[in-house]
Amino acid sequence: MTITTATTRPDAATSAPAARGSFWRRFGALVAAESRILVRNRTALLTAVAMPPLIAFAFSGLSMDRAALGVVLTMTLVGSALMFVLYFTMVTSLVARREQLVLKRLVAGEPTPLEILLAPAVPLLVLFLVQSGLAIGGAVALGTPFAHPWALVLAVVGGAATWTALAIWSATWTRTVESAQLTTMPLILVAMLLSGFSLPLTILPDVVQRFAHWLPMTPVIDLINLAHLGTGTSGEALAGGALVGATTGMILPMLLWTALALYAGLRGFRWDPRG
To answer: Mind listing the pLDDT tens digit of every residue in the chain (275 residues)?
Structure first.
């Protein structure tokens, strides 16, 4: 699709608000439509709403100490919400819209490809933020310590960006809604097994641990541990320059995954149904 733009702009200051308003009008309409579709799809809504709390409840039952329970609750609820609210549900949403030719009609109109692909994420992001807030509130109620609360913000924001981009990328090679259960399963399993989500990474060989910290879910779990316990990836207490360096090391993998997945997703996305 070729988009032509005006070559002369006599008054950029007056044209900028109009362009901004046009974006919000387009994107707001897309988000409103996606929100209505999500509410009407009881299966997708049930998966997004019920799955993370169920998983968090199952894993939290393994911890007896109240303070440790708060950490486990935050890790499992935030992590499972990223996988099942944002990632899986968004992949199925994008694939379903493509099969119904909705995306093809939209891309021929005013919205940009990025607006079309990000619109389904907005209502899911709201659900994710609500569930993350519940996890943090539960940790506060249990008396869990907060060594660096700002790290929770980095975990939630960084994780949301990473897994939204991964959903767009995964949708490029997922043929049908039914096959989404298979195409998303490898990344979900790897995230659950190699992030500290279900098993402590310390029981794994050193080379596997180093590799795991570059996966898309592990930095989220690392930042949650840093937020509550003030410890780095090796379990050491952090302060000063070591804290800055460790935090940077946790953020970097999420930035790389977000950039690469979004680039691959936008470059390779197919708007026609995959045969």
So the answer is: 333 333 333 343 334 444 445 888 888 889 999 889 888 888 777 877 877 888 777 776 655 566 778 888 899 899 999 999 999 999 999 999 999 999 999 988 888 999 999 999 999 999 999 999 988 888 888 888 899 999 999 999 999 999 999 999 999 999 999 899 899 999 999 998 898 877 888 888 999 999 999 999 999 999 999 999 998 888 888 888 899 999 999 999 999 999 999 999 999 998 988 76
Q: Is 92 within a domain?
A: yes
Q: How buried is 267 (Cβ within 10 angstroms: 0-12 exposed, 13-18 middle, 19+ buried)?
A: exposed
In a domain? residue 7:
no
Gap between the Cα atoms of 45 and 215, Å rounded: 27
The answer as to whether 5 is a domain residue is no
Tokens of 125: 């992001």
| CA 33/CA 259 separation, integer angstroms | 27
Determine the structural domain holding residue 49 and report its residue range.
Answer: 20-268
CA distance 274 to 263: 20
Inter-residue contact 215 to 134 (CB < 8 Å)? no
Residue pair 91/167 in contact by the 8 Å Cβ criterion: yes
As a whole number of angstroms, the distance between CA 118 and CA 136 comes to 26
Q: How many structural domains compose the chain?
A: 1
DSSP for 207-251 reads HHHHHHTTSSSHHHHHHHHHHHH-B-TTS-B--HHHHHHHHHHHH
Identity of the amino acid at 186: P
CB 87 within 8 A of CB 192: no
Angstrom distance (rounded) from CA 121 to CA 86 = 7
Q: Is 165 left (phi over 0), alpha (psi -120 to 50) or beta?
A: alpha
* Position 9 in a domain: no
